[in-house]
Predict the 3D structure of the following.
Amino acid sequence: MKRVFLLTLLMATVIGGQAQKVWTLDECIAYAFEHNLDLRQSKMAWQQAEYQWKMSKNAWLPTLNANAGEYFGFGQSPSYTGIYVSDNSSSASFGANVSVPLFQGLNLYNTAKADALNLQATEMDQEAAKLNLKLNVIAYYMQVLYGKEMVEIARRQMELSAEQLEKTQQLFESGRVAEADVYESRAQLASDKSNLTQTETDLALNLLSLMQTLEIEDDEDFEVSSPESFFAGQNEELDAPQTTVTQALLNQPVMEAARLRLQKSHYDLKASKSAWYPSLDFYAGYSNGLYHYFSDNYPNTPIDEQLKRNSRVQLGVSLNIPIFNGMKTKYRVKMTELSIDEQQLNLENVEKSLRKEIRQAYGNAKAAKQKMEAMENSLDASRAAYEYIKAGFEMGKKTLLELNESKTRFHKAESDLLQARYEYLYRLKIIELYKN
């Protein structure tokens, strides 16, 4: 019976361990790309642009229509000869026609090219949306990792306070410190417990923010990989900012989208100017009809003979020459020329903003690196000072107030270094996205 119980407990442990998934950063990003609502909306915009391009591309195809009708006449009714007769009758007609655009002033070609470029620009918009979403996921993911490490720091500080309370109690019992020091140590321990609770709450909120970004419902088993695995293999060296600027101007989706829309506006202008040119279309049609009289006053011709006699085929071309349309074409061309200037300014503005953002990213990264290095030195000094004052307190040479102040500085140095470390890594991630 005991063996069965142990086996059941082991199976439950294995199943529970398998049920909890530990998410890596790449898995979070991939999941967000698939489920994020804003990104799904950008995919719909791309799909609409694709349909528009396909309609423009297929505008060269012939237009084919068929028609049929049944008509009844009472009193005076038309006959197949075209003369009205005094009889009730019915007539049926059917036919088909096809039209093919031969020349539209290159309107169809230029419109299709413009819509193709717009489709590519929309695709670049989607890639830019992915980059923004990726950056948000990285930010929330790193907040979670930062929160996990802050919880560990708070737990270590609480353990130090517990040890300090125990030492203070021993010193009080030996008559080396006052009882007030014991109360002070208990208060410090309570404060550290409260701080641990707060950091755990902050971690839970950061996890919730990450899950909401991924469009994941509340999941108590949601967990991310350990900070150690995230930092493994990270390159913390900075290259020249101009290299990143050059790469970003060539590769960033926002730049490519702006360039494509500028090219599109030139084809829009050509399509607008095509309204000044003549258009030529080819037409072909077939028609037939049947007549039937309800009385015996007029004989009804057999159906097969009527089909042969009433059959008609038409072929022709239609030439349309624009002469004057109330100056609409002129001002439509003027508006399109303004659109070209607008897209050119937009391209320059995007380039200017991109350069500024990259320079700021490098400045922030350098400042974060300097802060991190300074915090490393501060932490070493604070740790040494804490160990020295702690030993002095145990020998009765330092007061509890000095010990608590040193411990507070040590805790702050740990927190500041951790914050600087994550800030620097986040800045590196931003630069990496600009380059790639």
About this structure: The CA atoms of residues 121 and 260 lie 6 Å apart. The chain is about 70% helix and 15% strand.
